[in-house]
Amino acid sequence: MSRSLALLTCIGLGLTVTVIDAHADIMGMTKSKQVSEPALVADPAVRDDRDTATTIDVSYVTTSRFITQGAGAYSDFNFLFAGQGLAANVPNIPDSDFTITQYTPWVVNNNMTEGFLTLPSNDKVSRDITNQDAGGANIVISYTPRAESTDPTQVNFVQAFIENINNAGFKPGVIDAGRISPYYNFDSAAGTGMTLQIRKVPLVANPNTPAWLGDIPFRCENGPLPSGTSNGCVLGADDTLTSIEQTFETFIESDQIFDGKTYQVLYGGVQWGYSYTNADEFSPNRLIPEPSSLVLIIGSLAILAAVRTVR
Prior knowledge:
Blueprint: E1 10-11, E2 20-21, E3 27-28, E4 34-37, E5 49-55, E6 59-61, H1 65-70, E7 79-81, E8 98-107, E9 117-118, E10 124-125, E11 134-143, E12 154-165, E13 174-175, H2 184-187, E14 190-192, E15 195-196, E16 203-204, E17 211-215, E18 218-220, E19 243-258, E20 261-280, H3 291-310
Parallel strand pairs: 3-8, 7-20
Antiparallel strand pairs: 1-10, 2-6, 4-5, 5-20, 6-20, 8-11, 9-10, 11-17, 11-18, 12-13, 12-16, 12-19, 14-15, 14-17, 19-20
């Protein structure tokens, strides 16, 4: 699971090839960033790693193999991509309908004091992580339909992702939602304007009131969280996870009827994501330095011995 930002954390189908527009006109924070924090001590129960998180550039997409691969988990839904198949005459929304109002990587701390995400509703949300070997990204994606256009106004967010853990290769796409509904806004942080709307399907947007979602995907060095949880770094073992890449595609969906049947049409979306790595900066035995440091020490001792020999 991607650990989508469930509401409980709040305080207060088509082609299988993704098409990316390299000249997207998405508004807001779309460029990649990186943050890194050094280890504190050699004790694996605290922070013995250098933690680094890096976001990727945000791009505009019109098809998604992530969603296509994950759609099988929702057999009652019929996904179509705008401009294709039965939806061939349905135009995609332009990339400028999307605004990324927050998009930052984080490591070590994501709590109500540091590293938290502020939703457009002014609710602060976090993963309740403090001083841990962990990392992820904060993001808020907003959708604003244009006035006097065919842009849908009754919409849902459909978000899917792929991940590569410890360089083992990317797994198939998974829709980032609960088992009941494929819509992110059904059971995660989403709303319209300045209002957080709990389990609102569909969201109703207009040119003055955008629809939005907030998410904080992350991973901990000690591995996956126990089933049913979405916060903190608990249980697991040191060095279970040393690297992860998660790539997301977030689409705008609106229902359409073709030949008397209801379809879930995906009008276009954004691709975003992050990578997180951790690397030991201390050996398991506190008295023994890391290999790189050991090489320097041995080299220094050799030089001193040579000097003494000359003398």
